[in-house]
Write a structure and sequence with these properties.
Two copies of one chain form a homodimer. Chain A is of the alpha+beta class. The first copy, chain A, has two domains: 23-127, 2-Layer Sandwich (60s Ribosomal Protein L30, Chain: A); 144-294, PurM-like C-terminal domain (Phosphoribosyl-aminoimidazole Synthetase, Chain A, domain 2, Alpha-Beta Complex). In chain A, 34% of the residues lie in helices and 25% in strands. Chain A has helices spanning 3-14, 51-69, 88-102, 153-162, 169-176, 182-191, 205-216, 239-245, 258-261, 289-294, and strands at residues 24-26, 31-39, 72-82, 106-114, 119-127, 144-147, 197-200, 219-223, 252-256, 265-271, 276-280, 283-287. In chain A, the strands form two sheets. Chain A has a seven-stranded mixed sheet. In chain A, a hairpin with a 4-residue loop joins β1 and β2 (31-39). In chain A, α2 (51-69) runs parallel beside α6 and α4 (153-162) packs across α5. The longest helix of chain A is centred in the first third of the chain and has 19 residues, at 51-69. The interface between A and B is large, with 63 and 63 residues.
């Protein structure tokens, strides 16, 4: 039983139009809302991170989801469950990291309870006024595919941590303290006039491309040589996997009209067809949804 | 280390005006938001409840918080973390219970992840348009104290369950399937013109009274004989404790002006002073905040 199968059961039970994008857009209220959880032993280990960095990342991954919708991140609520042996220091450092990641976003509520393991669930609310809201269903043929920055660094950082290493610090920090792409989101969602797709690359760039392709019934063709990545990745023998499949970079990928794309890093184009096509040194590699999913880190 | 001490650390770290009421009121967006978690082994056990009833209660306790603010409950997001051995049936029944509890409220998102124990965190969003929003700081001297219904049944139900009993079913269901007081909230928040306090009695009636008294710097004087309770409670030798301290009835208690109060059950009056005073058979029992807290079920 995998996450995506559970989500299908939920969709069927609720019969809801809202389940699909990372954020739900509540048009009557002019807001988007998203909620994501981090579970000790599943999403993080205190062997590799600190309470401060955990607070930072908990806020940032949810702010990133709001950015992916194109809305302006405004407010967070935070539910924290902690084992008995966790004390005041943890709570204070966690919230300091959360606050520092927030910037102008305000933490307005939540609760704190007991538990066996640390469990964090954050809800983020964004304002849609003045912004064009994205949907992964809205990629259109002829649009350019743009990204906000480099991919693979977070996956490489995780690999280093799991191998007992603590540097290069740039790669390690990419994993532990990602940064949501607020400016990219602001510019795209205020300049783009037609419908468009935008996602963050929390589950990997190829996964985001694959989700957009499937939801929009189009083919996304990407030139691998155009995808930016940190030069330190060149020492990894699985560079391509890290760039395409390594998750948690929290960059944004969007399909936008040419006049909006021209100021950004263009990595490809939306074409008719299905799935994701990667152009690499005269080869055309077709990635099916299954190809992408089978290489993904699986929560279950 | 207790929940309330952690909350003080959080308030100091965030330096936020929002932390205090169960819902945060986001005036620029015209919404209130609240998030609450239920943890297996802390807040519930599958020995006593079913996935359907757990889904029901998870929705209802958050809808109740929105009702306590006076706002109209509109949307929920749900984060669910499940151990590997939990299957499709659980997810389907849980979401069916959630949906049935929601009524017109829509479930619009959330996520599902792995974990060791079941962890549920629900966020509820309410709309403030046309409603006067409450705050526990806003009780005013001379206002009447009103309640939406009887107290003690949920606590009695929990006591029966812990003692291995399954009836009377009315008491058991009060605990497992509470009902948020949407109509009471609607009428109070649309009729009341001046500032007022309203809370749900999730942590017990005396706790809610005590929180309002402290936050508003007033004394709440309540006539015990006016507090409604289920007649089946008379067979319990700790009737008074169940009515005043037993939690999870999810009724509402409010301090409102006399012309609003006249259509409701009036149990007392807001006076100058501090703390909670219970009038019982010619006696005046003064309950300090500490008295109330020491009898509370403590998560930690």
């Amino acid at each position: 039983m995998k996450e995506k199968e559970f989500i299908n059961i939920i969709k069927n039970t609720l019969n809801s139009d809202y389940i699909g994008d990372d954020c739900a857009c509540l048009r009557d209220l002019g807001i988007v809302v998203t909620q994501d959880s981090l579970v000790e032993g599943v999403h993080f280990s205190l062997d590799f991170t600190t309470p401060y960095k955990l607070g930072w990342k908990s806020a940032m991954v949810n702010i990133s989801d709001v950015c992916a919708s194109g809305a302006e991140p405004k407010y967070l609520t935070v539910a924290l469950s902690l084992p008995k042996n966790i004390g005041e220091d943890f709570v204070e450092e966690f919230y300091q990291g959360l606050k520092d990641a927030c910037g102008e976003v305000q933490v307005v509520g939540g609760d704190i309870t007991g538990s066996d393991k640390i469990f964090i669930s954050v809800t983020a609310i964004g304002k849609t006024e003045g912004r064009k809201i994205s949907s992964r269903k809205n990629a259109n043929i002829g649009q350019k595919i743009i990204v906000s920055g480099g991919h693979g660094a977070s996956g490489a950082g995780l690999k280093l941590l799991l191998g007992g290493k603590n540097e290069p610090s740039g790669l390690i920090n990419s994993h532990l303290m990602p940064v949501a792409q607020r400016d990219f989101s602001l510019i795209v969602s205020t300049r783009q006039k037609n419908d468009y797709a935008m996602m963050d690359t929390s589950d990997g760039l190829a996964d985001a491309l694959s989700q957009i392709a499937e939801s929009s019934c189009v083919n996304l063709e990407v030139d691998f040589s155009k995808i930016p990545y940190n030069k330190e990745l060149e020492s990894f023998d699985d560079l391509e996997d890290l760039v395409l499949l390594g998750g948690e970079d929290y960059q944004l990928v969007a399909t936008v009209d040419e006049e909006v794309a021209k100021d950004f890093i263009i990595i490809g184009e939306v074409k008719s067809g299905s799935g994701v096509t990667i152009l690499k040194q005269d080869k055309k590699i077709q990635l099916s949804k299954q190809d992408v999913e089978e290489k993904l880190f699986n929560h279950f």
